[in-house]
Amino acid sequence: MKPSAMSKRKLKESSAESAESISQLLVKTTMHLARNYFWVQKILRERFCHHFCAAGKLFGMEQQYRHLLELLRRTTVHGESNSALVIGPRGSGKTALLNHVLKDLREMTQVRENLLEVHLNGLLQTNDKVALKEITRQLQLENVVGDKVFGSFAENLAFLLEALRKGNRTSSCPILFVLDEFDLFVHHKNQSLLYNLFDISQSAQTPVTVIGLTCRQDILELLEKRVKSRFSHRQIYLMNSFDFKQYIKIFKNQLSLPAEFPDEPFAQKWNNNVQHLSEDKAVQDVLQKLFHHSKDLRSLHLLLMLAVSAVTVHHPLLTAADLQEASRQHSTDSKANIVHGLSVLEICLIIAMKHLNEVYDGEPFNFQMVYNEFQKFIQRKAHSMYNFEKPVVMKAFEHLLQLELVQPLERPSARAQREFLLLKLLLDSSQIMEALQLYPNCPTDVKQWAASSLSWL
Amino acid sequence: MNTRQQSKLIYSWYGKPLGSDRKLRTSHYKGILITSESSKTETCIQLGDFILVEGVNADQPYVAQLVDLYEDGAQHKHAVVQWFCRLEEIPQNQRKMLKRDISAQEVFFDQVLGYDTDIAAETIIKSIMVIPLHLGEELPVITLNKEQTFYVKQSWDGKCFKVLSPDTFSKLKEANKTRGVITNSSKASIPSDIFTPVKKKTESVVRSATKPKKIDMEIESKHSSSKSSLSKERHSQRMANNDIKTPTARKKLELNSPTRSKGRLLGYEVLGLLDDDCDATAPLEQSATKRKVKFTNDILGSPPKIPCSDDKSKSTTQSAEHHQSDIMRLSPYTKVNDFSDEDKNLQEKDDVPSLGGYQSSQSPVVTPRSRRRCVQKTSALIAEQISMLDQEDFLSDSDSSYSLSSEEKEDDDDDDVPCTPEKKTKSNRILSTPKSSRKSAVHTPAKTLRKTPLKGTPRTPRNATPEIPRRIQATQEPASVLEEARLRLHVSAIPESLPCREEEFQDIYNFVESKLIDGTGGCMYISGVPGTGKTATVHEVIRCLQQAAENDELPPFQFVEINGMKLTDPHQAYVQILEFLTGQKVTATHAAVLLAKLFSTPGPKRKTTVLIVDELDLLWTQKQNVMYNLFDWPTQRHSKLIILAIANTMDLPERIMMNRVASRLGLTRMSFQPYTYKQLQQIVSSRLKGVKAFEEDAVQLVSRKVAALSGDARRCLDICRRATEICEFARQKRAPEMVRMAHVTEAIDEMFSSPYVNAIRNASLHEQIFLKAILAEFRRAGVEEATVQQIYHHHVALCRMEGLQSPTVSETMAICSRLGACRLLLVEASSKYLHMRVRLNLSQDDVMYALREE
Fold first, then answer.
1. How far does A294 lie from chain B, in Å, by closest CA?
2. Residues of chain A whose pLDDT is less than 50?
3. Can you list the domains of chain A with their CATH numbers?
4. Secondary structure (DSSP) of B427-478
5. Is the CB of A204 inside 8 Å of chain B's CB atoms?
6. Percent of chain B topping pLDDT 90
C-alpha cells in the first residue's frame, strides 16, 4: 500500500510542475508502469515456472554440483564411462542440478561439441522398444531416415549395440544418457535397456555416462542383481537440507529482480520492498508455515506465483497481505471447499453420514441407512420445509456420489439396488464441522444436529 | 533357399566308374550329372571343373575345383575338392595384409589345412570359371555373368597370402584350357541316352541360328561388338560359359528370322528351324514317338523328366592327386561354353581341326546319335565363329562400343527374366547349354527371390553402418597419479591377466581345447554371482585359444557370443548366431531351421564354433525350445559346436530347465565362488601395479568390506575409483596425496549407507510429525498398517501438543503422497483419499532412530 501511495504522490508532484503536460505525463507514467508490470510478471513467472537455466541459481547443493560436473567432465575429457543416480524427493532440484551442470559443461572449451546427449523420460519411453528408437533417433545413427527409425526392435537393438561396441575410449564421441524418472525404466521387461547401458558403461566400448534421476529412495533395491552389479553405485542425494534462514534467503533471491531489469529505479524499489517483506513478521509466519509443510522450492514457487499474480499496474509492489492471501489459497482444503457449494439437503445427508460413521465406527453404509438417519432428524426436530420425497433425496445423494464426497466400496453393478450399495464417506468429521462453520445461512437446527447426533433427544 | 533347390535336383554319375577300390569299396567317376526337375535341365560337371559348393551362407557358396568323384560303400556320392576361399572367409583382421582392394570376384587358392576337402556331391551347385591371374594384373572388366567367373591371384594358407606358384598357376590355366580340347575323346564314348532331348534340341537350334552367320560374316560383325569386346583382353579375360553365348546366339537367331520376336520361339518354329538345318534329324524327331513328345513338350514349356538313373556307364580312371592335370573331360554340351572361355589365341588352332575331324566322323550316322552329332556340329560352328570373331577383334579396335553393347545385353537378359519368365527359360534352354539353363532356371529365380523381400520391406537402410560419431577433440591422457589409478581401476580396463581365476581359467581352457582338438562338440555350464569374473574369464580363454589357433597350435575356430540380456526375444538368439556365422539376416524361425541344418550335417570347410551364451536364464521360454536346441546341437555328430553357457544361479539347470534340456546340458559345470577379501585385494593391487596411489590398508578395508557384502569385484573397483575422486576433492591444490582410509571410508559410506535415515532427517517438520503419527497409530492399533484418516487424527493431536497450526486434510494428503513418492511410505492409489492405507517402507526402529536424533 505504502509504495503505491508514494508513487501516486510522486505522480502528483510531477503533474503539478506543468499543467499542460499533465495528461501526457499521465499517459507516459501509466505506460511506464504497465511496462514495468509486464516485465515483473514475465521475469518472475518464468522463474517460478521452472525455467531453471534462466534463473541459474542452485541452493544447498554445491557438493553435488561439483560431483556431477566432475563426473561429466571426466566423461567428455578422458572418455571415462560412468553411471550415477541423482536421488531426491520431488521438487528437490534434480533436473535443475543436471541442467545447470550441463549448461556449465557446454561452456567448457574442452567439452564443446564433444558430447552427445540422449534424454529419455520414463513417462515417455514406456518400454524398451520406444526407448531404443528414441536413443537411435537422438544419436542420429545411420538407420535414422529423417526423423524416423526403421527396422524391428531386434534389429534396432543389435544395430545400436554394434554401434556402441565399435567405439572405443579414445576415439569415439562420449554419450551422455539422461534417464528421467529412472524408476519407471526399472519396470521394463528384463531391465534389458538398463542392463545394456550399464554394461556398456562398464566395458571398453564407446564411453557413455548414464545419469538416472529418480525420487525413489529404494531405487537400488529395484534393480535386478545383474543390473545392480553393473551399476557403479554412485548416488547423488539431494535432500533440501537447508534451514529456515536459508529458506528466507531463497525467498528473497527468488523474488528479487535481476540487475539487468530495464527500469533500474523500479527494480531497486522492488528489491528493497522484497528485503522489507523478508523481515516482516507476517511474511515470516507465512513462510514458516510453508517451510514446515514442505521444504521443496516448488511449493514456494507456487505460493509466490499466487502472490505475484496480485501485482497489477495499480498495485505495483508485493505486500504481506498478498502473501497471506496466497498462503490461504495455497492451503485450503479441497474437499471442504466443495461442501460450501452444497444445498442444505445435501449437507443434511452428509451430517447423517457423519453420525453413521460415528455410531458404526467407520463401517460402510448404504443410502437406506442414510435416509433413515435423515428421516429421524426430520421427524423429531425439523419442520416440513426439509421433508423431501425419497427420490429427491436419492437425487441429492447421487450428486454427492458424483462429487466424490462419498465413494462406493465396489463398482456399482446392474443387479444391485442402488439404495443398498455400500459406500464410504470421504470426509473427515473435522472437515465437515469446519465447512459448516463457513457455510452461509446454515439453519441453526442443522448446525445443532451436526454438533451432536443426540441433540434431538 | 538351398534346401528348396536341392530338393529339386537329382545327382547322378556321368559315365561308368573309372575304377574302384575294393578295400574301401569306393568307385571313382569322372563326372556328375545334375538334373533339375523343376527346370528339366541337366548339367554335367567333370573332374577339374570349377564348382560352387553350398556353404553356410546361401548367398556365398564356396568356390572349389573338383578333384575327385567317388561313391562309397554306402552309396553316398562324394566329391573331393580343392577349395578356393572368398575374401569373406578370411578373418577380418588378416584381410589387411592384402594391402589392396579385392573385388567380389576374386578368390584365393586355399591352402588352409584344416578344411575337409571331402564333401557330399549333393552340395555341388554348378560349375563356374576360375581364372588365374598374375598379381599385378587388373581384373578384366566383367560385364556378363559376374557370378559365374572368379579370378585367383594369390593363395591363402591361413596366415599369409602368397603369389600363386607357377605350378599351380599353370595347372589352373590348364584346367581352363583343357576343357575344350578333350571333348572329342569323351564325346565318342558318351552313350546317346544320356542326352536329353532338350540338349539336342537346344544345340541344334543354336546351330541353326548360327549357321547363317558363317555365311554372312558382315552381318555378324555388326553384332559382334560385344563378342569382340569380350574377347578383347584375351590373354586374361575368360568369360564364363553360357551367358556370353546366350545373347550372341539370340542375336543370331534374330538375324536369321527377323520377323520373329525375340524369345517367342515356339515349338513348331524350332522344329522348323531344325528341319531347315539338319534334315536328317528332323524327320526322325518327328517320327520318334516318345522322344518327340518330350521334345515338343519341352519346347512348349513343360519339360520332360530326364532319365538319368543308369548312366554310370562311363568310366575314366582318374587319380585324385593330378586333379589339375589335363585329364579333364568335358561333355559335349559343356563344350560349347568352354570355347568361349578359352584363350582363343592359343586354342584356335587346336579347336578347329579337332572339331572338324569330329564332325566328319560323326555326320553319317542318322540314329538318335545324329542329334548329338548335330549338337556337336553346332558347338563346333560356334567355336569357329568365335575364333573368327577373335580375329576380327584383332583388327578392329572398337573400344567405345564395348561397354555399351555389353550393358545392353545384360539389360536384355535382365528384362527377359521378369517379363516372360517361361519364355526366357525356354529361350535360354534353347539357345544355351544345359549349364547355363540350369543357372538361369535355378539361380536366377533364386536371386530374384532373395532380393525382392529385402528390397521391398521398409527396413533399416541397407548400407547403414552402426557407428558412433568420432570425437572432435582428443582425449586427455591421465595427468596425475590418481587419474592414472582411476583409469586402471575402471572395470572396463582389461588387465594383462586375470588374477585369482587361474584354476577356473585352466579348466575352461582345457575343456574347450580338448573339444577343439577332437573336433567334437560339448557344453559347459558356468555359474556364479554377478561380478565374479565369469564372462571375463571366458573371454580370456577365448583370447588365448585364438592366439593358439593363430600360432597353429590348435585348429582354427569361430567364436560367437550371444547375451540373453541383449536379445529382445529368446528366439532372436538363432538370428544372431546365424548372422555371426554366415552374415545372413533371416527371421528367427528360418534361422532355427538353417542352424539346425548347419549343425546336423557334415558341412564342408566348417570350422569348430565356440558359442558363448551369456545370461542363459533369459533364454528361457515356455517350451524351452531355444535352450533345447542350443544344447541339442553339440550332441549332434557333425556339429563341431562348443557351448559355454553362463548364468548366475548354480542350480539353474535343475530349477528352470525341463529334464530333456538339463540332460543335454550335461554335467560339465563350473561354479565361480565370490571373491574373498584376499582375492579382491590382489585384484586391486594387480591393477595398481606401479602406481602408488593407494595405501595398503585402504585397499584391504575396501576388499574386506566388499567381500563381506557380496564379493563383487566390480563393486570393489568402483569404490576404489570413487575414493580417488574423494581424495582429489579433498586435497585441493596441495601436493599429490595417497588415497587413505578416510577417503575409502567415505566412499564406502556413500555407496552402502541407507538413504532412508538421511531422507527422514531432511524432511520437513510436518512430514516428520506425520511419520510420528504413523508410529503412534501403529502402536495404538498393533497393526503395521493404517488409513490416512486414522493417522490424520494423530497428526492433529501431535500438532496441538507442539503448538503448531494443524494442517488441513489436503495438506496431509500432500505430505503422504510426497513421502509415498520417496518410498518412505508404501501407499495405495490416492483415489481412496482418506481411506488410503499406509505402511512404512522401513522398520519402525529406523524411523524412531531418525526422528529421535533431532
1. 5
2. 1-2, 53-54, 457
3. 1-55+242-331 (no CATH), 61-237 (3.40.50.300), 336-451 (1.10.10.10)
4. HHHHHS-HHHHHIIIIIHHHHHHHHHHHHHS--S-TT----PPBPSSPPPPP
5. yes
6. 18
